[in-house]
Design brief:
alpha+beta, Nucleotidyltransferase, domain 5, Substrate Binding Domain Of DNAk, Chain A, domain 1, 4 domains, 6-stranded mixed sheet, 5-stranded mixed sheet, 13 helices, 27 strands, 40% helix, binds adenosine monophosphate
Length: 605
Amino acid sequence: MSRIIGIDLGTTNSCVAIHFDGEAVVVANAEGGRTTPSVVAITETGEELVGALARRQAVTNPEATVLAVKRLIGRRYDSPEARDCASVYAYSIVEAPNGDAWVHVRERDYSPQEISSFILRKLKEAAEEYLGEEVTRAIITVPAHFGDSERQATRDAGRLAGLDVERIINEPTAAALAYGVSEEREGLFAVYDLGGGTFDITLLEVRNGVFEVRATSGDTFLGGEDFDNRIIEILVREFQETHGIDLHEERMAMQRLREAAERAKQELSTTTSTEINLPFIAVTDAGPQHLARRLTRGELEDVCAELIERTLGPCQEVLDFAGLTPADMDEVILVGGMTRMPAVQEAVRGFFGRDASRGVNPDEVVAVGAATQGGVLSGEVADVLLLDVTPLSLGVETAGGVFTKLVPQNTTIPVTVAEIFTTAVDNQPFVEVHVLQGERPMAADNRSLARFQLVDLPPAPRGVPKIKVEFHIDANGIVEVTALDEATGKEQRVRVEAASGLTEQEIGRILEEAAASKEDDEERKARADIQNRLRAMLYSVRKSFADLGDRLEEEQRTDIGTMIDESDRILSDEDDVVVLRETLEGLEGAAYLIADAVYAASAEE
Ligand code: AMP
């Protein structure tokens, strides 16, 4: 059986680790990076770029470069999250036929699952390169606060990348697992996870190898990108005041601002002031305009104070839920690149009254934990048990549009809850069950997961039919609902199809397309390889022919001269790999002939 790799599929960066030889190791990608930017771009020629390569060309290709797609995964087009992304990123967000938010890049619509699968595939390939074998099984982490649709969509992204997702685990839980196992710590852990796009806080109790999550909370729309946006807003506002130009309208300028803002933010974690310099950011009647500004750590902290403050509400919430105080914590663990910001560390220290633990790199700790859980599932890591909780309540809509909770948030998963439903009028032929997830009292304010009808009920007075509906949340936090008509003894099982996400047919179609383009990609690569070799060979034959051609017989000289001209033409005109290969072989023959002639001549001398 193949190994189970651990993947942290982040908003900004992703990371892959493998449990290997008794410990979890982070695997570098093809470019040598231990983390891979979660960026996907489609070039003019239709080539997919993933990671650092995609990120590097984002400024010149902003509309076809998809950043932070995790913010859209499992989201509806009309959700505030999708609207927010649309206002911030240069790529287009469109409404899919099922109402989900998709992205439109170069004449094609892509689901966020598909874009995520390109990133996952790259990480899978890095792991395969490292192990020297095919990898088909993975554990993928998600923010603890992700609901059912985001989890299902993440699992589908894994499938599209050719991975069986054995388990979806929560990022903070993975981080705690990495600490608990590799650093052999026990007690009450608070994991504060502030990444590129999301914030999570989780309290866990770790005793004798049992990792039990006590409570979790967070904000799926609060992360490093919001900090970057605060800097961008200062720069855009000041530029408008000085030059009367609104840079929001300039897509390329916005992408340059985004990169500069993020760089400045990161630099201000170690220095107290930094220079932002963007020459030629816009052109006015007066000529090209430049943006140059010094930004201090104090200014950054001022504009971001409210964002940091917002993380403390959920911290208090989880403590209240678990009936604990900050002083009860034995360890505070920081996860996510944003926790490098001194003001964030200060806020966490102020709240919990203690310094955070260091030890495992905050960018890698989640992937390391996921790989450790992979080791647990494959039996390589013994005596570790993970007990997670559901971050959101699950329930149904009842009379008057009220949301009735069946599984409250922070219930240990997996869990199964059954409820008996009946009819409201005589001879009612069906009942409708509307399943929702969320914390608001009215159904309409929560996230609708599924709506289904149990039909063909035999005629009966109202209240008599007994239909048992079972709600199950599995260890991945994914919800399944089944229904059984008990009244007549007749079994009627209904499985709920999620209202959003990709259908089986869509997944099948995308997989087929990927398989087809894989052949194309390989062919393109083979062609590029052979063209490179041919170019190099042509250069060297031409050079030795010019230097040593006079030592050849007259006939050989004519033949090789013609061959050089013909190869030149083929290199610029021909696409056919077979023709290219034959030309290369011909030139190799010519190179040997010249070498032979030279040796023969020098032997005679
Ligand atoms: P993650 O999703 O955990 O990879 O976190 C990425 C976020 O952390 C991005 O918004 C980064 O800009 C931010 N980040 C990374 N390094 C630093 C740093 N040294 N100081 C401040 N923020 C950082």
